[in-house]
Amino acid sequence: MQLTRNFKLSEFDCKSGCDMPESVLMEVKKLANQLQIIRDFIQQPIYINSGYRCAEHNAKIGGAHKIVNGKRVETSKHVLGQAADMRVDNVSPSDLYEAIENLIKFNHIFEGGLGVYQTFTHYDIKLTRSRWDNR
After folding, report:
1. For residue 113, what is the enclosing H or E element?
2. For the whole model, what pTM was predicted?
3. How far apart are CA 38 and CA 45, in angstroms?
4. For residue 2, what are the contacts with CB-CB under 8 A and spacing of at least 6?
5. How far is CA 90 from CA 46, 123, 131, in A?
6. What's the mean pLDDT in 94-103?
7. Are 81 and 34 in contact (CB under 8 A)?
8. What is the DSSP string of 71-89?
9. Of 14, 25, 65, 67, which one is least surrounded by beta carbons within 10 A?
10. Is the separation of the CB atoms in 119 and 70 below 8 Å?
11. pLDDT exceeding 90 applies to what percent of the chain?
12. d(CA 3, CA 33)
């Protein structure tokens, strides 16, 4: 299924092979629209390393979580279909981070979570601002 001019649903599928819930699909569509704006701005393909993750896959790879009453609770926006870890050929994760930050600054895309890692950049469409550097 084509979500935007340059993004297909399959790019956001969980690596476990599980089915994506309908509620997650709605969020992935919102995310893809934001990523399309980023792609149009940088004028280069964006490769999604990780989009939607079911809770089991998120736990397996050590995704964001907290412990509540001795039980693991997933806090990763990937579990909701609201996050993407991405890379762009010949663009460093830091440069992609800065491009996204500028789009946010000028209200072209949603404020949300933005993180930079050694090999990828994370962007999510949660309702609160957060920034991190995990290089």
Report:
1. strand 113-117
2. 0.93
3. 10
4. 8, 9
5. 11, 19, 23
6. 98
7. no
8. EEEE--TTTTT-EEEEEBT
9. 67
10. no
11. 88
12. 8
* pLDDT band (50, 70, 90) for residue 33: very high
**Distance of alpha carbon 129 from its chain centroid, rounded?**
14
Contact partners, residue 40, CB within 8 Å, separation at least 6 = none
CA atoms within 13 A on the CB side of 6: 17
Average pLDDT across the chain, whole number: 95
Helix H, strand E, coil C: the string for 85-121 is EEEECCECHHHHHHHHHHHHHCCCCCCCEEEEECCCE
- Inter-residue contact 36 to 6 (CB < 8 Å): yes
CA distance linking residue 92 with residue 88, whole number of Å? 7
Q: Are 93 and 135 in contact (CB under 8 A)?
A: yes
Distance CA 91, CA 126 (A): 25
DSSP string, 44-65: S--EEEE----HHHHHHTT-SE
pLDDT by residue (tens digit) across 44-98? 999 999 999 999 999 999 888 788 999 878 779 999 999 999 999 999 999 999 9
